[in-house]
Amino acid sequence: MQELLVQYIAGKLDGLERIQAKNWIDESDENRQYFEEIKKYYQLTKLIKKPGGFNKEEGWERVKEGYRRIYLNKIEDLKSAKRLLIRRYMIPVAASIMAALFIGTLSYQFIFEKKVDNSPVLCEINVPMGSKSQVRLPDSSVIWINAGSKLSYFTNSFMENRMVMLEGEAYFDVMHIDNNQFVVRTSDVDVKVYGTQFNIKSYPEESVITTTLVSGKVAMEWNQSSKFERVFLEPNHVARFNKSKIQDNKNALLSEYLKIEANVSTKGITSWKDNEWVIESEELDDLAILLERRFNVKIAFEDESLKKYKFSGTLKEETLEQMLKIIQLSAPILFTIMDNKVTIHDDPSFRKKYDSLINVLD
Known about the structure:
- With 362 residues, the protein is of the alpha+beta class.
- It has three domains: 2-89, no CATH class; 93-267, Jelly Rolls; 276-361, Phage tail protein beta-alpha-beta fold.
- The protein has ten helices and 20 strands.
- The chain has helices spanning 2-9, 15-25, 29-45, 56-74, 78-89, 158-161, 267-270, 284-295, 320-330, 348-361, and strands at residues 93-103, 105-114, 122-127, 133-136, 142-145, 149-154, 163-173, 182-185, 189-193, 197-202, 208-215, 218-222, 231-233, 237-242, 258-261, 277-283, 298-301, 310-315, 333-338, 341-346.
- The strands form three sheets. The protein has a 15-stranded mixed beta sheet that branches. The protein has a three-stranded mixed beta sheet with strand order 17-20-19. Strands 16-18 form a two-stranded antiparallel ribbon.
- Helix 1 (2-9) packs across helix 3 and helix 4 (56-74) packs across helix 5.
- The longest helix has 19 residues, at 56-74.
- It is globular and about 70 Å long.
């Protein structure tokens, strides 16, 4: 947590990590005091910027050393001082790794617990590219987490506030508890839950946060706005919030940047967690991003025009190469796989036949 606080002070955090740091600081007066002391000694010991840039590791060591000296001066018994420092200020990190779980493909779930003093324990569940995972929370809610995603919550206070923080994509099956609402916090939007099933996609590199309601009831709130507004969704609604357009407009209303589509077939959005993956009229450009996360590869296009071809279908446990061959049969493309990179090329001979067929169908 100390490292996170230093990054927060230096203005290096954004998105989910900034929210985590602020939540911890606001948790108690003791946390706030600890943060102010860290901030004070960070500013006092920060290195003068050199041609090589600021040395974060050296600066942090100076912060710890300055903070350690202040407390040593206050404690007469050196042995007691050492025990106190080890217990309170030496960056404790407890880590546990859950067993691999098969859900379509082999998935790995990494859980890191971080604790400073009497602060809540932060549980982080990181799912790497090429994997997906399923977890059951202390309230019996079940969450499927997609590749390249992180879910976190404070274990000590979870049953009181039932809040989780999401970076990436996850599908939620939330247990209803009277007078104890479940909340999903993303970088910009909070989703308040009333016992339901829904999907949220909020990757940092994507400009849109998408919430898909399968059943039940949820409400969306823009947590960065100075104006309070709540928008409710109904089953089979898909809400798309464009965070990139409002970053500098804190007085905007959520509804001004939120597009809601009704009567949507949600299977194509949520099936990433199932054994059968449903693809519904997906452009190859967007499908490539899904394939990158699912198989932990990088996909490049030699011809930009190929990105606009659309695909639909239902897939089971196909490998990446099998999926690319299926796509190749239905569009004028060729592909090569080298190490961890896929390159998609144009197939000129097939393109003429393909375009002729499309014109006839049109």
